[in-house]
Specification:
Beta-aryl ether-cleaving enzyme (chains A, B); about 10% strand; Glutathione-S-Trfase_C_sf (chains A, B); alpha+beta; 4-stranded mixed β-sheet; homodimer; Glutathione-S-Trfase_C-like (chains A, B); Glutathione S-transferase Yfyf (Class Pi), Chain A, domain 2; Glutaredoxin; globular; Glutathione_S-Trfase_N (chains A, B); about 240 residues; 9 helices
Chain lengths: ~240, ~240
């Protein structure tokens, strides 16, 4: 059966930096499922019209089309019950909190740190679209959002509960990684692929967790192409 | 079988404001278990020596003594499996994140808002102990910790993921409350009992959730004695 994931790419088709696509790539690897990742750019809306959707990730699993990263994780649990990601009803309810924590507590400060790196990593043909949609969303220019020192300080505060949890267990989901880990890890892959900024210090339990996450599934995250792997990426 | 909870009290034995004790009171009510709450003050260490512990909550359930609020919730699930609080292994792992979120993301800004009210609510005989232990813990005087405007701003930021979750479900644990709700709600009962500060606006989904939480279990939280119920509390 064919399995295809439409996956955001940047200046190079190998540069894959979407935090939402990274959730799905890690989740597919967690389930031991092969996938062909198909590079997609922000402005290639037509390529997704079959899914009646306008952004990635889009997973095509045989005859089934699934959109939205969180819904894809739930779909994977329903369809491939081995190695649960979100788990049963109560566990799934709590997994949703990690989604919101990743998107509302971690993403804004990380965005403030990496936004100009992110713009640089995006394909030139996509940059006007990115600027227009994000400036509308934020109500500010990208240059006004850019505030790395404040971002690092706010990220440090936002990481406090993650740190607490990782002082007592190797993964957010306990002895082994699960949906909670992947939901949060996507944000860090986003930053890692487009930027060289250090988001957490080496002494932070979050750092040790990130190293473990990068090693998972034959080093899927660690081997991902970064902006520094691309010749002339900084022009 | 007798069941006793040692429960922190303040200037009046009816004033019960410990966020950790509130977790346990809500959890016991969730299980439908009766309990005698026994008022205890910070400096009455001898009264807890039987438990080889120096702070509350301490639950005495027949012949069993359990300390630490989170451990008490786990104990209740093991001993009274109906109406799960923390749930199975994966759900329980995620419940721990709410414990850290409550203690590390919410408690510090709430402390900055209510600390002088809190001092006023504590029994006069306990105030020197409270000041000494907290100033040592914070590395600052209570007056320096007191920063209500900054606290409200930081609390607003910290509540973002809670707000996201409560926009999609009535409780953090979904259609019905569970450990995640009680772990976080304790902080709000702490503030409610000692202070009149408004922590969230009426329009906030967190506010609507608090109203639901106050109504649970025959209005256990709503009926709790507040500082404003005590004559001459502000002297």
């Amino acid at each position: 059966m064919s399995r295809v994931l439409y996956d955001l790419c940047g200046i190079d088709t190998a540069l894959r930096f979407s935090p939402f696509c990274w959730r799905v790539r890690m989740a597919l690897a967690h389930k031991g499922l092969d996938v062909e990742t198909r590079p997609w750019r922000f402005t290639e809306k037509d390529a997704l019209s079959f899914a009646e959707h306008d952004k990635v990730p889009v997973l095509v699993d045989g005859d089934t089309v699934v959109t939205e990263s969180y819904d894809i994780l739930c779909y994977l649990d329903r369809t491939y019950p081995e190695a649960p990601l979100v788990g049963d009803a109560l566990a799934e309810s709590r997994a949703r909190f990690f989604k919101h924590y990743a998107e509302r507590s971690l993403a804004p400060p990380i965005m403030a740190i990496i936004i100009m790196d992110l713009l640089n990593a995006i394909h030139p043909d996509d940059r006007a679209y990115f600027r227009e949609t994000r400036e509308k969303r934020f109500g500010r220019t990208l240059e006004e959002v850019h505030s790395p020192v404040r971002g690092l300080s706010q990220l440090d505060t936002a990481l406090a509960p993650l740190r607490g949890r990782l002082e007592e267990a190797p993964f957010l989901d306990g002895d082994a990684p699960g949906a909670a880990d992947y939901l949060v890890f996507g944000n860090f892959m986003w930053a890692r692929c487009v930027s060289t900024a250090d988001l957490v210090s080496n002494a932070d339990p979050v750092h040790a967790w990130l190293e473990r996450m990068l090693d998972l599934h034959d080093g899927l995250g660690r081997q991902a192409t970064r902006i520094t792997d691309i010749q002339d990426a900084y022009r």
